[in-house]
Design a protein that fits this description.
The complex is a heterodimer of chains A (502) and B (113).
Chain A (H helix, E strand, L loop, with lengths): L3 E6 L2 E6 H18 L3 H21 L6 E2 L1 H11 L2 H8 L5 H4 L22 H9 L3 H13 L4 H11 L6 H7 L6 H14 L3 H7 L2 H59 L12 H7 L2 H28 L6 H34 L6 E5 L7 E5 L3 E5 L8 E5 H5 L1 E6 L2 E6 L16 E5 L6 E5 L4 E3 L4 H20 L1 H6 L15
Parallel strand pairs in A: 2-3, 5-9, 5-11, 6-10, 6-12
Antiparallel strand pairs in A: 1-2, 4-7, 7-10, 8-9
Helix pairs in contact in A: 1-2, 1-3, 2-3, 6-7, 9-10, 12-14, 14-15
Chain B lengths: L1 H30 L2 E2 H10 L6 H13 L3 E6 L7 E6 L1 H25 L1
Antiparallel strand pairs in B: 1-3, 2-3
Helix pairs in contact in B: 1-4
Classes of the chains: A alpha/beta (502), B alpha+beta (113).
Chain lengths: 502, 113
């Protein structure tokens, strides 16, 4: 049994055995180093990969689906190594720096499993700082005794540092340029180190075994944990990604719809009547504030969406440049939004405080001589309180109260909802309920029309509940198109009406 | 000593092959539209063995020098292939090479007499 890896070569996918993969990837690195950089080299490499893909495809049958090490060997034989290229045509580009492997590039931090005792962290750090890893191991051991901080540090580094797997990474780890000579050197030393961990263990002296035993046990423990974690982690990532994607998608929708609404209906006093929109538009750079506010909310949400998608698809969608642009525009809009908000905060607060539509009021209702009350309009609710002494009041927002006409006809008090906006079509006109509060002391006949409701606190419990359910339905259906209802001529007279109270 | 001799002979042969490789490739392409794999097999038949990887840098260089042109053609076996053709400049270059070759051949024959 062999472990396989899935690769693409010239847009074709191949399943390849692990050691064959290592051979192939080293070969390609080698060729790349030989060809040097630039568009010409890229073309040559693309041509070579193309041809290799074609040849590898011809090795496969429905019964042989995997590229083996032997296939790769044969392929390399046909294609020739970089040395062959040199001999036959003379290295066109790479000769100039292929001579010495000393060509230094910036070192990169990788875990060095070739020289590892536990996870290759110390060896990797040693490579990075170009010092003997033993020194770093001594520091780690010292840190164990000095409070045990070595453990979390080691684990964090183990997670954070990637392992140097390919020849190219191993060179980067040692700060060597990926030249032909460097590759040759590496494959020479590589053969020496290729004896794995087990045989290195066997080679150690008895004392060495005892000294490294704790490290070996720790290594075994972490390998086990890593194995389990590697199984569980993808599931956690997927679920988290899914949640994040859905959450941010819904969030984006809400933010978008909300902002559009605030932008498109900003000239109507009847939309979103709990916000003094028309007052604010005249006062503020309203449009800008909405757009900036939208951006400062939507950008991080969109970013969350992208991250979620990346987690689900297991592919990094965002590149660094894009992330930079996004972050920049978010900072820009956020800063401007905050600045504008702070600048206009007193005015905004003042507008909200003095917004006529938000002011609540309570009016006394004179019930002297009234025997019968008739209400007409869906916003007028009647509440019969248990208390016997409270005077009758009509309460609600001032705008709504002004919208109610009170007429006396003999001993009958008629409350009518004026519909001055009857001709205006609006989808989200907001009319709050007005409440007529009555004490139980007076004996009254109450009639309601047009969907208003009566809450009778004195009525028996079950009945009240039943009534309430009906009322809720009633109110909902009214609120959706209140104006339309009022304009229609065939007004339903709804009767769960006559509630006689003693 | 033997080893040294063998090595330098090998080197001389390689140098000669190196010199004519471009010429050989142009000759093959001049006959017909052809792609890299076929070029290799034709060369192998002619007992001028090269590893395939050598061809690509050469083709790329010749193309950049304006001697060759290529178009992509679909193949039944797999991905599309680059089929190379000679440009007019390439034909002129090839003619020049042929002249050089025959004069070289003549010179060598004369020397061998």
């Amino acid at each position: 049994m062999e472990k396989t890896i899935s690769i693409t070569l010239n847009n074709q996918s191949f399943v390849i055995e692990e050691d064959a993969y290592n051979k192939l990837s080293d070969y390609l690195e080698n060729i790349k180093a030989h060809c040097g950089a630039g568009a010409d080299a890229a073309e040559v490499i693309a041509d070579i990969e193309n041809s290799m893909a074609e040849k590898l495809k011809s090795n496969l049958t429905p019964y042989k689906e995997v590229i083996t090490s032997a296939n790769v060997d044969a392929l390399i034989e046909i294609m020739g190594t970089a040395e062959d290229f040199d001999r036959e045509v003379g290295g066109a580009t790479a000769d100039n720096h292929a001579e010495d492997g000393e060509d230094k590039v910036e070192r990169k931090l990788y875990r060095d499993m070739d020289n590892a005792i536990i996870g290759g962290v110390a060896a990797g750090l040693g490579n990075y700082f170009d010092i003997d890893p033993v020194l770093i191991r001594v520091i780690f051991i010292a840190l164990i005794f000095a409070g045990g901080s070595a453990f979390p540090i080691y684990i964090l580094l183990w997670i954070a540092m990637p392992e140097a797997k390919t020849a190219h990474q191993k060179l980067e780890m040692k700060g060597q340029a990926p030249t032909l000579a460097a590759f040759k050197n590496l494959s020479k030393t590589g053969k020496k180190i290729q004896d794995n961990f087990k045989s290195r263990w066997q080679k150690r002296s008895a004392l060495g075994k005892i000294l490294t035993l704790p490290a070996v046990i720790i290594r075994g423990f972490f390998m086990g944990v890593k194995k389990i974690w590697s199984k569980v982690w993808p599931i956690i990532k997927f679920l988290f990604g899914l949640g994040l994607t859905i959450f941010s998608f819904v969030g984006l929708g809400l933010i978008g719809v909300g902002s559009l609404y605030m932008l498109l209906y900003n000239n109507s006093a009847y939309q979103l009547s709990f916000i003094p929109i028309s007052e604010l538009t005249s006062l503020l750079p309203y449009t800008w504030m909405i757009i900036l506010g939208f951006l400062s909310l939507a950008i991080p949400t969109a970013l969350m969406f992208i991250c979620g998608l990346s987690l689900i698809l297991r592919k990094n969608i965002l590149n660094l440049a894009m992330a930079g642009i996004i972050l920049g525009s978010w900072l820009f809009s956020g800063i401007f939004f905050c600045a504008l908000s702070l600048r206009y905060f007193p005015e905004i607060q003042h507008k909200f405080d003095s917004y006529p539509l938000l002011i609540q009021e309570e009016k006394a209702v004179d019930l002297k001589g009234v025997k019968e009350i008739e209400t007409n309009g869906h916003i007028i609710n009647v509440l019969v309180t248990k208390s016997t002494s409270t005077p009758a009041t009509l309460s609600g927002r001032t705008v709504d109260l002004n919208n109610i006409e009170m007429n006396r006809v003999g001993d009958k008090l008629i409350l009518t909802q004026k519909d001055e906006d009857a001709n205006k079509i609006c989808l989200n006109c907001h009319l709050d309920q007005v409440e007529l509060k009555l004490a139980t002391s007076s004996t009254l006949k109450i009639t309601t029309k047009n969907g208003a409701s009566i809450y009778d606190e004195t009525a028996p419990k079950e009945e009240e509940e039943e009534m309430e359910n009906e009322d809720i339905e009633e109110i909902n259906s009214d609120e959706i198109i209140p104006v339309k209802k009022a304009t229609s001529t065939t007004v339903k007279t709804i009767k769960h009406t006559e509630a006689k109270v003693k | 000593m033997e080893e040294e001799f063998k090595k330098s002979l090998e080197n001389a042969a390689a140098q000669m092959r190196k010199g004519v490789l471009e010429f050989a490739i142009l000759l093959v392409i001049a006959k017909r539209k052809i792609y890299a794999n076929e070029i290799i097999s034709v060369m192998k038949e002619a007992k001028l063995t090269v590893v395939e990887g050598t061809i690509y840098p050469l083709l790329s260089r010749l193309k950049n020098a304006g001697l060759l042109d290529y178009d992509w053609e679909e193949s039944k076996a797999g991905p599309p292939r680059k089929y190379y053709t000679l440009t007019t400049k390439g034909q002129q270059f090839l003619n020049g090479c042929e002249e050089q070759w025959s004069s070289l051949e003549k010179a060598i024959t004369n020397l061998k007499k």
